[in-house]
Write a structure and sequence with these properties.
- This protein is 41% helix and 17% strand.
- It has 9 helices and 9 strands.
- Strands 3-2-1-4-5-6-9 form a 7-stranded parallel sheet, with helices on both faces. It has a two-stranded parallel sheet with strand order 7-8.
- Helix 1 crosses helix 8 and helix 5 packs parallel to helix 6.
- Pfam families: Semialdhyde_dh.
């Protein structure tokens, strides 16, 4: 059986997908409480009556008491090698923090949902995809109550920080979008579509483990 999203905890809540996710959760009548882990207080979240901001300077400082008491745990946390500064720093964030978060909630009876990436595979020759795949494998090994992996392609949306290659890709896609008919496996998706997929998965998934690929994100009602 599925579970109502009565209370949710979100990391990566100030990112492109995370912010859209919190906005959608806040509109749900069934959702009574949303905890967002942030490094500093966020002005938008101060205005949301259901949102409680958990301010921590380092997400590795999150503990069992911080994350307990939720029906759903969402991770929208991710970075790039360029922003992180090195492959090791990227690994520490994308694998390390997400793994730590999963470890904290693994004994709770909840639904864990993670924004991963298209092509995530622990045997990938690409470092980015390999880290995402290793993270998925590690989380799946925890045997949680319910797990969802969301694997989007390129994300469309307005980021607070500039990512030059993504900005160029977005502009290129908007130029050729009208020539793409129907669904396309690699078609970029919006942050709102990804967030909506997470909410729908949280509401409707009955399987213990499920992957939502880029086509599923495009077609989510």
């Amino acid at each position: 059986m599925t579970e109502n999203i009565k209370s949710a905890i979100v990391i990566g809540a100030t990112g492109l997908v995370g912010r859209e996710l919190v906005r959608e959760l806040h509109q749900l009548a069934e959702c009574e409480r949303i905890t967002v882990a942030v490094r500093q207080e966020d002005a938008e979240y101060k205005q949301m009556s259901k949102v409680e901001q958990l301010v921590v300077s380092d997400f590795f400082m999150l503990n069992d008491e911080d994350v307990s008491g939720h029906t759903h745990a969402f991770s929208c946390l991710g970075t790039t090698i360029k922003k992180a500064g090195s492959k090791q720093a990227f690994y520490n964030t994308d694998f390390g923090i997400n793994a730590h978060f999963a470890e904290l909630v693994q004994d709770d009876v909840l639904h864990f949902l993670l924004v991963s990436a298209m092509g995530a595979a622990s045997e990938s020759i690409f470092f980015y995809n390999r880290v995402k795949g290793e993270l998925e494998d590690y989380i799946q090994s925890m045997d949680m109550n319910r797990i969802s992996f969301i694997r989007p392609s390129l994300l469309l949306g307005e980021r607070q920080e500039s990512r030059i290659l993504e900005d160029l890709s977005q502009n290129l896609f908007r130029t050729v979008e009208k020539y793409i008919l129907g669904n396309f496996k690699y078609k970029p998706v919006t942050a709102r579509q990804v967030a909506h997929t997470m909410v729908k998965a949280a509401q409707n998934q009955t399987e213990k483990y499920k992957v939502y690929d880029n086509l599923a994100i495009q077609n989510m009602p």
